[in-house]
């Protein structure tokens, strides 16, 4: 529809329909939305040390990999994510070329493959000597063969008895390997793995055990080895996308103390909100709640969601979807004003929350062949038509919510290709955040997979970690793991979860809401320091974390830190076996978890140079 005539139509039809519907469903009460502004610290970044000094302060790691092994390649990808975020300079090397390097040039050496016999072979004594002479060795993958090389390295691993290979169906954290993990237990087929049935010396620190039938087998443990340290992961699961937090926990436990910037936010993305989903008809809703679907969302669902945000302290962003048609030709775009969309959008704004962009319709911005056939999506002809669809959404949003800027875009069904990304950037001049997903494991097509980072074009890449209203063990595990690495929680749900047989599992809203609240409380218990944020606020926090560099020393019972890129306030996680105490006004320190805090702490940095004490060290 021509833009001029569409505006005329919106003004006339929208005014009539909005007045009628709001009087009918809202007792005459009109919720007026305000604008949404981004609070950005205006302070100029402060640098306190030279770039050369900052570089010299960084921990260095050598990671030995097997490019012929799919599992090793996956683990390498995870370690690239982890070590980059931890601020560790890592070199990834084909283990077949290990003779070209000196292990002693690195602060830690990691074995990230299973073919110990073939790729370590006769070099096992040199690797063990590196550890016993004061190095830090991380054995990150269960070997295929527990023969000669394993027997050599086990001298530094603290293994006292060795059995055969076992199948495990879960794990239990016996220490705070990742923030908030102590005593958490996870079982299910998603956690199935192979382990070696070993026992370890009483002097070893065991951080997690594998649940193998009636037996608990050490899964992650740290052992003193002469003057150095060996940390062993007795499985293969670190190659899984959801295990990056455990990988980070292994690295930092091996280091003993480590400090690095984090995001420190928690956000729930509500996809398709506002959207035309309220026009659905549901016998279940009518029978159980004596309301239409629209009335159910207005009277029950949305008030409950607002209550949860207040009670558990979470920020929301609603992702606006204008229509559910399947049109991919801009000449055929047609939008009829939906007063319910305006009502719920204004309610978001009135609560200080954010409206982001989800799409003119729910057809993902991809070319032909880039979504699975079973989803039955229509492909766009090219970048131009994709851009037109997002521009159409922007114009509709401007009519319904005049003061709103669309800072955040979430791709429908998490699919978006390079042309789609370019189209979104061109069509949304205020774009600051793209939010896809952290992993595409088990999913086909052009899924928009991200790390938490700032892209080369300045757009913040901010993935969602978990999804759904129902609560389950694997989602809890992934939220704890990935969230514990980055200091963040990003989750998404759909308003129509209750109407979807798979997402809603046939449960009542009361049960879905209870599980949703339990999920939020779980993350609050594990990562208690996270602050509520909308998507664009969380993106600004991510930008600040990425731009912050911290050099620090641990000497004489104190941590002394210096920042580059400091803009007035920053958050870091600090891992230590000693309890940190803030004894001056340069920072604040508290456990990351109110429930399970024993090794992980959040440091709120208030000055570009800061310090705190470590109890029991001098």
Essential attributes:
6-stranded parallel beta sheet; 9-stranded mixed beta sheet; alpha/beta; globular; single chain
Summarize the structure.
Helices cover 32% and strands 24% of the residues. By secondary structure, it is α/β, with parallel strands linked by helices. The model is unreliable at 1-34 and 38-42 (pLDDT under 50).
Overview of this structure, please?
The chain has about 625 residues and is an alpha/beta fold. Helices cover about 30% and strands about 25% of the residues. The chain contains 16 helices and 29 strands. The chain has a 9-stranded mixed β-sheet with strand order 2-1-3-4-11-10-9-6-7, with helices on both faces. Strands 13, 14, 15, 20, 21 and 22 form a 6-stranded parallel β-sheet that branches. Strands 12-25-28-27 form a 4-stranded antiparallel β-sheet. Helix 3 (about 70-85) packs across helix 7. The longest helix has 24 residues, at about 5-25. The chain is globular and about 75 Å long.
């Amino acid at each position: 529809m021509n833009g001029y005539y569409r505006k005329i139509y919106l003004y006339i039809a929208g005014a009539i329909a909005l007045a009628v519907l709001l009087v009918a469903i809202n007792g005459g009460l009109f919720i007026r939305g305000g604008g949404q502004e981004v609070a950005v610290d205006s302070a100029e970044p402060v640098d306190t040390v030279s770039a050369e000094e900052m570089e010299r302060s960084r921990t260095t790691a050598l990671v030995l990999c097997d490019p012929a092994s799919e599992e090793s390649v996956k683990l390498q990808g995870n370690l690239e994510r982890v070590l980059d975020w931890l601020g560790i300079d890592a070199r990834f090397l084909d283990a077949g070329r290990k003779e070209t390097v000196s292990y002693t040039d690195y602060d830690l050496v990691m074995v990230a493959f299973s073919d110990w016999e073939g790729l370590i072979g006769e070099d096992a004594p040199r690797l063990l000597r590196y550890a016993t002479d004061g190095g830090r060795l991380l054995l990150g993958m269960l070997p295929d063969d527990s023969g000669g090389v394993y027997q050599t390295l086990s001298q530094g691993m603290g293994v006292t008895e060795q059995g055969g290979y076992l199948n495990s169906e879960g794990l239990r954290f016996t220490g705070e390997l990742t923030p908030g993990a102590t005593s958490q237990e996870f079982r299910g087929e998603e956690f199935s793995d192979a382990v070696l049935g070993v026992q370890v010396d009483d002097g070893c620190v065991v951080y997690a055990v594998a649940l193998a039938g009636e037996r608990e087998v050490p899964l992650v443990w740290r052992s003193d080895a002469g003057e150095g340290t060996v940390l062993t992961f007795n499985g293969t699961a670190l190659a899984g996308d959801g295990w990056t937090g455990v990988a980070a926990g292994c690295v930092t436990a091996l280091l003993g103390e480590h400090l690095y910037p984090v995001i420190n936010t928690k956000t729930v993305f509500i996809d398709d909100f506002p959207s035309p989903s309220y026009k659905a008809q549901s016998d279940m809703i009518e029978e159980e709640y004596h309301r239409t679907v629209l009335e159910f969302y207005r009277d029950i669902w949305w008030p409950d969601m607002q209550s949860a945000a207040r009670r558990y302290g979470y920020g929301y962003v609603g992702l606006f979807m204008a229509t559910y048609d399947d049109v991919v030709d801009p000449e055929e775009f047609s939008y009829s004003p939906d007063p319910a969309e305006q009502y719920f959008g204004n309610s978001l704004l009135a609560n200080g929350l954010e409206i982001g962009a989800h799409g003119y319709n729910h057809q993902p911005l991809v070319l032909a062949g880039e979504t699975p056939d079973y989803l039955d999506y229509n492909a766009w002809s090219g970048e131009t038509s994709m851009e037109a669809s997002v521009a159409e959404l922007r114009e509709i949003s401007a009519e319904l919510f005049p003061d709103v800027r669309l800072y955040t875009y979430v791709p429908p069904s998490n699919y978006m290709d390079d042309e789609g990304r370019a189209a979104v950037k061109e069509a949304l001049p205020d774009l600051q955040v793209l939010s896809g997903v952290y992993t595409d494991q088990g999913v086909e097509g052009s899924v928009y997979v991200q790390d938490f980072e700032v892209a080369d074009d300045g757009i913040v890449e901010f993935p969602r970690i978990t999804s759904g209203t129902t609560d389950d063990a694997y989602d809890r595990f992934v939220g704890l793991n990935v969230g514990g690495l980055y200091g963040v929680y990003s989750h998404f749900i759909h308003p129509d979860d209750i109407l979807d047989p798979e997402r809603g599992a046939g449960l009542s809203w009361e049960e879905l809401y209870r599980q949703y609240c339990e999920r939020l409380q779980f993350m609050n218990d594990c990562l208690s320091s996270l602050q509520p944020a909308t998507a664009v606020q969380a993106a600004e926090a991510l930008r600040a974390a990425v731009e912050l560099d911290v050099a620090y020393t641990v000497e004489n019972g104190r941590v002394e830190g210096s920042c580059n890129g400091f803009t007035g306030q920053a958050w870091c996680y600090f891992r230590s076996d000693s309890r940190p105490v803030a004894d001056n006004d340069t920072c604040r320190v508290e456990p990351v978890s109110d429930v399970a805090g024993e090794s992980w702490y959040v440091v709120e940095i208030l000055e570009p140079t800061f310090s705190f004490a470590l109890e029991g060290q001098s």
